[in-house]
Design brief:
The complex is a heterodimer of chains A (about 170) and B (about 575).
Chain A lengths: L8 E10 L4 H11 L6 E6 L6 E10 L1 H13 L3 E6 H4 L2 E12 L2 H13 L3 E6 L2 E8 L1 H12 L3 E6 L3 E4 L6
Antiparallel strand pairs in A: 1-3, 1-4, 2-3, 5-7, 5-8, 5-9, 6-7
Chain B lengths: L5 H11 L4 E4 L6 H7 L6 E4 L3 H15 L3 E5 L3 H15 L4 E7 L15 H5 L5 E4 L6 H13 L5 E7 H5 L24 H12 L4 E5 L1 H5 L2 H14 L3 E3 L14 E4 L6 H9 L2 E5 L5 H4 L10 E6 L13 E4 L2 H12 L8 H11 L19 H12 L5 E4 L3 H9 L8 E2 L10 H11 L5 E6 L10 H6 L5 E6 L4 H10 L15 H7 L3 E5 L5 H10 L4 E6 L32 H5 L2
Parallel strand pairs in B: 1-2, 1-3, 3-4, 4-6, 5-6, 7-8, 7-10, 8-9, 10-11, 11-12, 13-14, 13-15, 15-16, 16-18, 17-18
Classes of the chains: A alpha+beta (about 170), B alpha/beta (about 575).
Chain lengths: ~170, ~575
């Protein structure tokens, strides 16, 4: 017998929650328990009194599953609001990456030149390595990393996506 | 020493919430709470024999009274033993508060004696859970926990309390963070537009059906009353899920009986052929829908549910209404006004045709055991002889449960206690104990199987201790009958491990616990046995020996549509392909 699969689409969800112990485990556990996907997840508190956190989740699934993810998240008592940025309209997605490249001579020069094109910052250097800091949309970071792979890529750290609606509206 | 300790705050909090009973079992990590309960006349503690029993008793109490059930257990094994009941309450939306002891805060995370990560373990089978680390938070936590457990879609809430928090007094300087927030506010009423749209669909339906579920019961007796009024206005045929039985009188001519896997032919056919389906407080469970792509293909669907995540979860609907059943039914009735119902004569004539198939008819005698009692007959007689007392009926899980649902008719809500979602064997007797405490004057009967009853058989002692006159009516067919039935259908009658070997003598067992034991072996003794059970002023086990080869029909087999029911007389043995075998 075959295990059934369905076509999926990528969605970015912004979730505001009470900043209390266990809330992240509740959310990630919900995804595992119900078989949903997490492509990336970022979290940090966003209010003066540290009472509220904002979580950005990038997920993928068929439309019906995306709707379920949203409503299942809303069922959790500490969750204030869930906004599907992908469905809500124009929005900005940004990610931060730290990328370490090691090399000498022409390779090193080329790495620096490409970094300038991408407006990556050099945040650490030795005579044989750079650490670049790059922010941008995920696909920009993907292509920068692909180029660095040919020029002595050593390691990559990525923050995962943070997203926000364009225009006046909150979220 | 005037300041109250955490334990004292807890007990006061329970009293403030109107708690009458706490179902529990003591242990090291809850000793301060037990000491606080000692001699306190305001709360009655019911000592169970196993923590699962405490959980199910609290569920039974909640289901029969509409009030939240309260459980008190110790850390580690106390909490893990309660988990099945917590998961059960979560699936069936039963309001329940579970207080678990925890090792002192300084020992959390050190693998201390009787330490378990209760919060982690119960995270996904509770509506919400708390670890209280400061006695200053206790009062507000209890208040919020009861509100969460009882409002919106009800469910279990766990409060895990370390032992030192039970002993300590709150520091004056620290006010609780929780007090100010009223963070849980479920949507109760529908918008006027939604009501108008729903009414338009219902009023113009030629083949309507009301598909009702446990949400109507959870919404309170008023919802059942409003459902009757709404049905009377629309004249619509009506069916109910397992969990919804009792929300509409079974004797009403428009009631089609239960739907789904072991539902009636007429209910399932009407679901399949209707043009407008109004789902009220049910959730399109897989036991109800059968094969999804063949589920009611030509209908417009309206779904009324207090939990938005239930809407469009498995079956896409045309109109989803988030709200409380009673509130939305009230809105629909008000909006209906002076309208006249459609002429549904043709639709009802078709239904009468399906009804004429008499899907609940069964052979008078078993083929293999012609001298034995047919289990369906036993339930029919039990119903006939006890119905005037309007008993509360609980069940375990399996064939006997489905037969009880099919042949024991319910006229009012909160009389039917069964484990529907999780399907927990061992639910029935502790649930009956909880119901009997909540409704001391009611006749409470647990319809059981000989296999299920053994899963929480230790609770016989609890009923003895508190003089609870519960009746346990065992349909003893010497098999885990539902497993045997599936093996017959799916695995060419290879009865792997489904025979109930080495059964106890249930009559002797009853007597050992101070209960009365009655054995019924022959059809002619059935009525006398049931009457003797009712006449005894105390707990009774009836060991009713029934034909072991009887199957629970009608049945929609795995992966089949509503229109492909197996009825009595159909050939059912054989094997299935892997796709069908993979379904449960």
């Amino acid at each position: 017998m075959k295990i059934a699969t369905a076509a999926s689409e990528r969605h970015v969800l912004a979730v505001t929650v009470d900043n209390e112990p266990g809330i992240l485990a509740k959310i990630t556990g919900l995804f595992t328990a119900r078989g949903y996907n997490i492509d990336s997840l970022t979290v940090a508190d966003i209010s003066d009194d540290h009472a509220v956190s904002r979580i950005t989740i990038v997920t993928n699934g068929p439309p019906q599953v995306i709707d379920q993810i949203e409503t299942q998240l809303e069922r959790l008592v500490p969750v204030h609001k869930v906004v599907d940025l992908t469905a809500a309209g124009p929005h900005v997605e940004r990610e931060l990456a730290l990328i370490k490249v090691a090399g000498k001579g022409e390779m090193r020069v080329e790495a620096l030149r490409i970094a300038e094109l991408f407006r990556a910052k050099v945040v650490d250097t030795t005579t044989q390595s750079f650490v670049f800091e790059l922010t941008g949309a995920p696909d920009k970071i993907d292509s920068f990393i692909a180029l660095m792979r040919e020029l002595g890529l050593v390691s990559v750290g990525r923050s995962g996506v943070v997203g926000m609606m364009r225009g006046l509206k909150s979220v | 020493m005037s300041q109250p300790s955490g334990a004292a705050i807890l007990v006061q909090g329970l009293i403030d919430q109107g708690v009458e009973f706490v179902f529990g079992y003591p242990g090291g990590a809850v000793l301060p709470i037990y000491d606080e309960l000692f001699g306190d006349e305001r709360i009655r503690h019911i000592l169970v024999r196993h923590e699962a029993g405490a959980g199910h008793a609290a569920e039974g109490y909640a289901r029969a009274t509409g009030k939240p059930g309260v459980v008190l257990v110790t850390s580690g094994p106390g909490a893990t033993n309660a988990v099945t009941a917590i998961a059960d309450a979560y699936m069936d939306s039963i309001p329940m508060i579970v207080l678990t002891g925890q090792v002192p805060t300084s020992l959390i995370g050190t693998d201390a004696f009787q330490e378990a990560d209760t919060i982690g373990i119960t995270r996904h089978c509770t509506k919400h859970n708390y670890l209280v680390k400061d006695p200053a938070d206790l009062a507000a936590t209890i208040e919020e926990a009861f509100r969460i457990a009882t409002t919106g879609r009800p469910g279990p809430v766990v409060i895990d309390i370390p032992k030192d928090v039970q002993i300590a007094v709150p520091s004056q300087s620290r006010a609780s963070k929780l007090t100010a927030t009223h963070r849980y506010a479920p949507q109760m009423v529908a918008s006027a537009e939604q009501i108008a749209e729903a009414l338009e669909m219902i009023a113009n339906a030629e083949r309507p059906i009301l598909y009702t579920g446990g949400g109507v019961i959870n919404s309170g007796p008023e919802a059942s009353e409003l459902l009757r009024q709404f049905q009377d206005l629309t004249q619509s045929p009506i069916t109910s899920t397992l969990m919804g039985l009792g929300c509409f009188p079974s004797t009403h001519p428009d009631f089609l009986g239960m739907l789904g896997m072991h539902g009636t032919y007429e209910a399932n056919m009407a679901m399949n052929r209707c043009d407008v389906m109004v789902c009220i407080g049910a959730r399109f469970d897989d036991r109800v829908t059968g094969r999804l792509d063949a589920f009611s293909p030509d209908s417009k669907k309206i779904h009324i549910d207090i939990d938005r995540s239930s809407i469009n979860k498995t079956v896409p609907v045309d109109l989803g209404i988030v709200g409380d059943c009673a509130a939305v039914l009230g809105q629909l009735i008000a909006a209906w006004g002076e309208r006249k119902p459609q002429d549904l004569g043709e639709w009802k004539a078709r239904i009468a045709g399906w009804r004429a198939r008499e899907c609940l008819a069964y052979p008078e005698k078993s083929a293999k055991h012609p001298d034995m009692i047919m289990p369906q007959r036993a339930i029919e007689r039990l119903h006939a002889l006890t119905r005037h007392k309007e008993p509360i009926v609980s069940t375990e899980v399996g064939q006997h449960q489905m037969w009880a649902a099919q042949y024991y008719g319910f006229e009012s809500p909160n009389k039917w206690l069964t484990s529907g979602g999780l399907g927990t064997m061992g639910y029935g007797m502790p649930a009956a104990i909880g119901a009997q405490l909540g409704c001391p004057d009611a006749l409470v009967i647990d319809i059981a199987g000989e296999a299920s009853i053994q899963m929480n058989i230790q609770e016989l002692g609890t009923a003895s201790q508190y003089r609870l006159p519960v009746k346990v009516f065992i349909l003893n067919n010497e098999y885990m009958g539902m497993v045997r039935q599936w093996q017959e259908l799916t695995y060419e009658s290879r009865y792997s491990n489904s025979y109930s070997d080495s059964l106890p003598d249930f009559v002797a067992l009853a007597e050992a616990y101070g209960w009365k034991g009655i054995r019924i072996e022959r059809p002619e003794d059935l009525d006398a046995g049931i009457l003797a059970m009712m006449e005894h002023d105390g707990p009774v086990i009836v060991d009713c020996c029934v034909a072991s080869d009887a199957n629970c029909l009608p049945m929609i087999p795995s992966g089949a549509a509503h229109t492909d029911m197996i009825l009595y007389g159909d050939r059912v043995d054989g094997t299935m392909d892997d796709e069908a075998k993979a379904l449960v």
